[in-house]
Q: What sequence folds into this?
């Protein structure tokens, strides 16, 4: 892959805080037009990494290129090409949705149409509502509207759907899919694995300041991670085995049991299971290190 | 790339700054707390003081309304500049609004153009309202000589400018947005009491006057008295003089100190944001 195809290119990123190493040598490539989800537990280094890419923090070591430029030295032209949806702000409470979106549009050389953006996040009915009166989910959708109003080439979405009800989340996913179709590159951090599975072309799992794995959602964890799990109950207690041949295993079990097999389950691990396995391995290592 | 449109130039910092002035002013007048405690406060106090001391005769036949008008004008300038900026910027920082703005192509200059525009707009509007109330309702004689108004102009500009930069600098002091009002308001209140806004300045104990001389509000109030009180009143001032030269120097010093400190301490993110 040519480096020119990359919207984000990170090599050996290190960030230290007085009390800990937040990012310990992360590499990251995000292609133009790709939706990349960054997953990881709280304190794993997700936010620090993202904020370095956004230009809020400076890297201690490593080479960081975002749209070809080191964000630590970014100018207004660079900022006009990115969009950031971070945490909600409770300020500007007395301004209406339309006033805010129209105002932010004036910051950019090539903004999208404010009314269109308001409609795309489903806030048409709230155009004249002061932001103080918006619900948490509506406020979040306004955050997204302000993040995309500048028509960014690269969009950062930091836990965009926290506090959404399931319907609002589905609605939001459609919005992101439309942005992707329009060619926007998106870096998404989220705690919801189904969201990453649904939206992301590739996911990266970060824990303890290190990138554990980068893969498409359906290949994360390698082939072995996707083997079926067959579980049942007998006089000795609960059993679970991993097998590539669940049907054969089931046939064997049917011969052993007379009639119903107690608590029988055959399942494929979800992305969430695989993710938990991945970061679980790190936690176990850390625990071992601590007790040694 | 998501856009095929030709690269258009960025809107200029001034253009965005002007648009921010509009937004800031709109917010200010919709915010009830700001409106009451920053904008109407000196006007309410002028009305109360002229009523309470209506029988009191000051030197040179000056009545209470006339004596307190310049103090309230000075106090109003300090509120719309120092107090307003110190509180709102602290809250905007704590609520991550500044961080959000920093993530857009808005330049820092535009933000400050917005704030300075807000201060100018609110302080001029407040001054106009104070004059109208004093002149029309309370029967205060307003100065008619061009000379006096020229004095007023430089004192007003120096006062708003130093109050603004000091407000920006002081916005870093409150540890959270919630604490902002509680930290800033007492400082302003204290200065008002020792600087001769609520009391006749010459009646204050000498040590208190000595303390107030360090701070800008005393000089702002004295400067305003030189504009709005009759010339003969000068003799009743503590030094027997309006001390305009000294006032100009002290206010300019605070302006310079404020500028330097504001540039050093101003930040777009919260302190705990690393």
A:
């Amino acid at each position: 892959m040519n480096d020119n195809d990359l919207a984000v290119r990170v090599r050996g990123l290190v960030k230290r805080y007085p009390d800990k190493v937040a990012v310990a040598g992360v590499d990251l490539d995000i292609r133009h037009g790709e939706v990349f989800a960054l997953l990881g537990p709280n304190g794993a280094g997700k936010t620090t990494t993202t904020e370095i890419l956004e230009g809020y923090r400076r890297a201690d070591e490593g080479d960081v290129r975002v749209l070809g430029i080191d964000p630590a030295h970014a100018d207004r032209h660079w900022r006009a090409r990115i969009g950031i949806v971070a945490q909600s702000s409770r300020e500007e409470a007395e301004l209406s949705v339309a006033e805010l979106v129209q105002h932010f549009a004036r910051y950019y050389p090539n903004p999208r149409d404010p009314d269109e953006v308001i409609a795309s996040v489903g806030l048409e009915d709230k155009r004249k509502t002061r932001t103080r009166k918006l619900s948490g989910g509506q406020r979040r959708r306004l955050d997204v509207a302000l993040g995309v109003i500048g028509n960014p080439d690269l969009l950062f979405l930091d836990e965009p759907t926290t506090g959404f009800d399931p319907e609002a989340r589905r609605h939001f996913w459609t919005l992101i899919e439309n942005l992707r179709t329009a060619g926007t590159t998106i870096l998404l951090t989220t705690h919801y694995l189904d969201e990453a599975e649904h939206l992301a072309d590739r996911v990266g799992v970060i824990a303890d300041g290190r990138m554990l794995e980068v893969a498409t959602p359906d290949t994360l964890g390698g082939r072995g991670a996707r083997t079926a799990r067959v579980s049942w109950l007998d006089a000795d207690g609960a059993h679970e085995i991993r097998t590539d041949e669940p049907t054969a295993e089931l046939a064997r079990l049917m011969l052993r049991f007379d009639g119903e097999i107690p608590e029988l389950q055959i399942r494929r691990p979800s992305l969430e299971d695989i993710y938990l396995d991945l970061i679980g391995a790190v936690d176990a290592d850390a625990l071992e290190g601590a007790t040694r | 790339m998501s856009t095929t449109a030709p690269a258009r130039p960025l809107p200029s910092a001034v253009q965005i700054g002007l648009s921010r002035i509009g937004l800031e002013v709109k917010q200010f007048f919709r915010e009830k707390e700001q409106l009451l405690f920053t904008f109407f406060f000196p006007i309410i106090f002028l009305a109360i003081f002229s009523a309470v001391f209506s029988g009191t005769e000051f030197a040179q036949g000056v009545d209470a309304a006339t004596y307190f008008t310049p103090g309230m004008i000075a106090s109003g300038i300090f509120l719309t500049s120092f107090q307003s900026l110190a509180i709102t910027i602290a809250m905007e920082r704590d609520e991550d609004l500044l961080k959000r703005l920093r993530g857009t192509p808005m330049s820092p200059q535009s933000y400050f153009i917005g704030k300075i525009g807000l201060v100018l707009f609110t302080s001029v509007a407040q001054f106009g309202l104070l004059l109208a109330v004093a002149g029309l309702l309370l029967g205060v004689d307003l100065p008619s000589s061009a000379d006096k108004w020229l004095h007023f102009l430089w004192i007003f500009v120096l006062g708003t400018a130093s109050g603004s930069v000091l407000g920006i600098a002081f916005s870093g002091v409150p540890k959270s947005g919630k604490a902002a009002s509680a930290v800033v308001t007492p400082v302003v209140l204290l200065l008002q009491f020792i600087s001769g806004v609520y009391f006749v300045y010459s009646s204050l104990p000498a040590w208190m006057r000595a303390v107030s001389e360090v701070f800008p509000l005393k000089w702002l109030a004295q400067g305003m008295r030189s504009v709005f009180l009759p010339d003969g009143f000068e003799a009743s001032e503590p030094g027997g003089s309006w001390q305009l030269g000294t006032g100009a120097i002290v206010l300019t010093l605070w302006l310079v100190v404020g500028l330097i400190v504001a540039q050093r301490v101003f930040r777009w993110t919260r302190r705990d944001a690393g």
